[in-house]
């Protein structure tokens, strides 16, 4: 069995950074499942397809032509869609909002399932998302649900956007994130919620480094 570390949680909880650090420390593969939903939203926009058109958007998801490059030095993962580098467009809050609209369509989720599971290759996988522990890898070695207060998550996302040279307004950002959280938690298909056997970790007042080592400890016991 290939070991899988599932890390789920809302946006801005720090799970992207934590997942990347853990994948590097363990020498495991990394699945950023949110990037796949962002890419589907972007591909639909590029083609002028209505984001609510489940048949067309799921067909796009099925045929998605994308590529990821994970740099060794901890920098941002680079992403290509249809042969074009889309790093700048992928990480914006509007791409996140589009992603959560297409992610609510059951046929889109089904279309991305096999692609996500194919990331599980030796020596192991760190899977970052909303439904890694509940739907995509229900038999994961360890399931972590990372969370933090809405204010702290907005602050972290704001800082992240600033560091990437993207513009943002803190108050508007928090409102957008809360709307996205609601959409993710209230949808019928794979809603955002901890798996019954997940370790729920509130990291509002805990630094990233500490979170990483706490998870490493738990994983050691689970392996
Ligand atoms: O994590 P990220 O912000 O990149 O995710 C963007 C959106 O993609 C989320 O708000 C959510 O709607 C969707 N998503 C999902 N299932 C996942 C990962 C992301 O529905 N496993």
From TrEMBL:
Residues 6-220 form the Cytidylate kinase domain. GO terms for molecular function: ATP binding; CMP kinase activity; dCMP kinase activity. Keywords: ATP-binding, Cytoplasm, Kinase, Nucleotide-binding, Transferase. The keyword Transcription does not apply. Its main location: cytoplasm. It is an enzyme of class 2 (transferase). The keyword S-adenosyl-L-methionine does not apply. Its EC number is 2.7.4.25. Belongs to the cytidylate kinase family. Type 1 subfamily. This is Cytidylate kinase. The gene is cmk.
